[in-house]
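Reviewer 2 asked us to include a model.

Predict the structure of this chain.
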Amino acid sequence: MNWKTENFNCASYRIPAIVYNKGVFLAFCEARRTSFRDYGEMDLVLRRGILLEKQVEWEGIQVIASMRGERTMNPVPIVDNVNKAVVVVFNTFPSNVTETDLLKEGVFNQTVFVMKSTDNGITWSDPQDITDTTLGKVEPAWTIFSPGPGHGIQLSSGRLIVPGNYYVKDPVEPGIWPQIKTAVLEFFDVLYGAVGTSNVFYSDDGGSSWHVGGSVPTANAGELETGKTIHANESQVTELDDGVICINCRTLGVEMPRVQAFSKDDGMTFTVAQVVDKLVEPGYTGSFMPSTKNFGGCQGSILGFPAPEGVPDGFSKTWALFSNPADKENRINLSVRLSIDGCKTWSAPWSLCPGPSAYSDLTYFEMDDGNGGINKLFACLYECGTTDFPYEKIVFQMFTLESVLEGTKH
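Predicted model (structure tokens):
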């Protein structure tokens, strides 16, 4: 699937998200009008892919949300099997305001929307503003909130879960010396004194109303001997056995691996973030001072799916797949890893794209194998490119569970 072949006025496509529903892939992303960077006007676009016997037939680009003067960003799609709908949550910032501007000023300046499709992505409802019932209920106000990126999930209870992240920044105390101290500290801190945290929103009525769920408690990365705060960032969730939710999060520390936390109450509370040493992610190697914090890490995707038949009692009935650029330094080597024990341990990576690559999203589907059985399959929608540029195109790739087992066994 090549978005670039479409006759659409856009400089770059970024931030992929994908779900599968009743024989159709719904592939979302941001159509960035001016550049690949995180500012300027953006539209949310969709391509529907019809799954045929051995291939996917892709329809043209459909603009599902466009607001002039705004960045419509971070689409988080969820298949609602209870209400037979696809729900998408996204947010907007003014197009002339960057995340750095918001972090510096420490002010809330964004809107959160939801929209639905009851015909599998052919048509969509108008975006509904849900800011007041979510961000508007938070005190003190978060500096920035962003959903996802990538898919959300529906729990076995029917609850819809949208993962995301936010920043909180304490006000500067009055007086010249606190202001000088803050200015000096912020000079060496790309987050400008804010603390990043992962969290979830939830809906119990099919996406008509939304509420703020649990956040991942902030922890220090003592086991890494850094003493620095873990800034949990872009996140995704999956439901494991017995209704346990795992939230898997990007971190913003230099050369820090990913973290994850767990919830046993439908996402209302989470355990303290746990560092997952095996889930390495890109750091930031361009700092002119080794002690300076930078925007490290990269978004990743996590996906739960039914374990193969015949798994003995006592073993996890839900397995998990994870994708991200599996490299400690650069956004390269988009790979998947497998967990068969409830995200306690992870396999070695199996590379889907060894070259430049960045954001990704996973989905699961099943097909008859022609012999009375079921093939377990996956699709990954990810950013990649040539030379040193990982944002040249968005690629769709399908593969089987057998391929994952073979590729990750080393």
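Residues 81-407 form a domain with the Neuraminidase fold (CATH 2.120.10.10). Residues 221-225, 285-293 have pLDDT under 50 and may be disordered. We have added this to the supplementary material.
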